[in-house]
Amino acid sequence: MESTAQPATGASPARETVESLDQLPDKVILKVMKNFTAEDLLRCRLLCKKFGRLALDPAVWRGVSVGEASCPVFRLAPCLSFLRVDVQQLGHCKHLRTTNCAVRELELKFGDGDGVDLKQLIESIQRQESLGRLKELEVEVDFLQMKSRVLAALLKAVAFVAGLERLRVYGDSDMHKGPALGAAYAVRSPLPSTLKEFRFMACARLDNFVNFVLGAHAATLEKIFLMGPMCTPETARLIGGMPKLQDLDSYLLPGMEAVAACESLSILHLELDFPNHATQLGGVTLLREVHHVTDITLDTYFAEDSAQLDVYALMILALGSSRQSQVKKLRLRPGSYVSGEAGKRSYQRIFGAVTDVLPKLAALQELSVTLDLPDEVLQAITPETAPALRRIGLVPSMCVHAWVHRGVVSKFLSANPSLHVALPHKSNPCTCQVCTEDCHQDLRKAKRGHLWRMYLCTHLEDDCDSPEYHDPVTVQV
């Protein structure tokens, strides 16, 4: 029988492939490697000398993200775009505090801190700081369970990290209480101001940490998110003195009126829950004075009584205290959880405040209200009372299709030919009489059970000066 065996070439197909790839220019190989994962790059080290050298080139690692602790990465990788570490799962790996792998964005999950070598973790943070590439730091902590001593040491280490542009601290917490962390931080030399964004969502009594960060980076901060009650007016005073702050999302702070001094502020989102009456009134004063802010959101999701809603109505009225208001976008989210006769009266005050303030907000282009507006409010909205208004977001309590057929709604749309009414709509089958009629077929375009948003208007898109409101679904009525 004639043999079909092929002559030996001395090299396997895999080896021939590697040798042929080895002939490619470095820049071509590097371009391909930029799409590899960390595991792929570490395997490439074993293929050949050229691949081993290129696989450790910083250019291919700058975009790599690693979602868990990896000793080989800590030992071999020159840099990373993102690293997430659950510090309670680090085990015996000590490379994080000695690594030369420079991370741009570091996310540390501490949990309650039990079993964590805090000294090692603080050294790891300081190591990344010393490598000079760390720009974003996120720390997740169980504020309810972590011991005060451990938390104090951790937050102090985080506060003193130099060179950051974004800092986020959050975790499970109790908004009404928190650990006592001692005196204010003392610094031997000023910390360079580099932070652009600070997000803090935690428990009360952490003023020292928050105020140190705000004070140290006051010159550069552009965006602040504070979801933790502060105890002193120092926080608001620091915010009021910031020259570059553009966006503030915060609970009402003691001495909130001081924030009005921040002339660069353009976006203001206030959470009205939990503060005492004096702090709420400080918020009213602030809204009377921030004429330069163009985007305002007022939230009180967890209003506990009618008194809190009454203050909410005062805040709405405060926006129109002068004709200098430059507000273009206004979102009102008062919640709907206060019941009884007192609650009804408070909601009527809110509706009355909306009606009263609209003619005084000449620049207002977008309005959103998370309540079912009564007919008298809809009737009060006209091109004369709201000349710049182009979008209004509403939440009717009835079927949206039935709401569209109401006579007062038809008159409202006809009276405002340039207006787009944004409505949430859930396309589950509805058994109401209106939904049995063969009309407004666009209302049935969404998938069953999917909550989506549509716009109602009385004009054609080609005739519209605000085409952005004709997406995703626009129903002409």
**Any idea what the shape is?**
globular
Structural class comes to: alpha/beta
Quote the beta fraction: 15-25%
The tally of beta strands, per DSSP, is 16
Largest sheet: 16 strands, mixed
Strand order of the largest sheet: 1-2-3-4-5-6-7-8-9-10-11-12-13-14-15-16
Structure description:
This protein starts with 12 loop residues before the first helix and ends with a strand. It is α/β, with parallel strands linked by helices. α14 links the parallel β12 (366-369) and β13 (391-393). The protein is globular and about 80 Å long. It contains 16 helices and 16 strands. Strands 1-2-3-4-5-6-7-8-9-10-11-12-13-14-15-16 form a 16-stranded mixed sheet, covered by helices on one side. Helix content is 31%, strand content 18%. Mean pLDDT is 85; it is low at 1-8. Pfam families: F-box-like. Residues 18-64 form the F-box domain.
Task: Explain briefly what this protein structure is.
This protein is an alpha/beta fold and about 475 residues long. The protein has helices spanning about 15-20, 25-35, 40-45, 50-55, 60, 70-75, 120-130, 150-160, 205-215, 235-240, 275-290, 305-320, 340-355, 375-380, 400-405, 405-415; strands at about 65, 80-85, 100-110, 135-140, 165-170, 195-200, 225, 245-250, 265-270, 295-300, 330-335, 365-370, 390-395, 420-425, 450-455, 475. The longest helix has 18 residues, at about 340-355.
Write the topology of this structure.
Layout: H1 13-21, H2 26-33, H3 38-44, H4 49-54, H5 58-61, E1 65-66, H6 71-76, E2 79-86, E3 102-111, H7 118-131, E4 136-141, H8 148-159, E5 166-170, E6 197-201, H9 207-216, E7 223-227, H10 234-240, E8 247-251, E9 267-271, H11 277-289, E10 295-299, H12 306-318, E11 329-333, H13 340-357, E12 366-369, H14 375-380, E13 391-393, H15 400-404, H16 407-415, E14 420-426, E15 451-457, E16 473-476
Helix pairs in contact: 7-8, 9-10, 11-12, 12-13
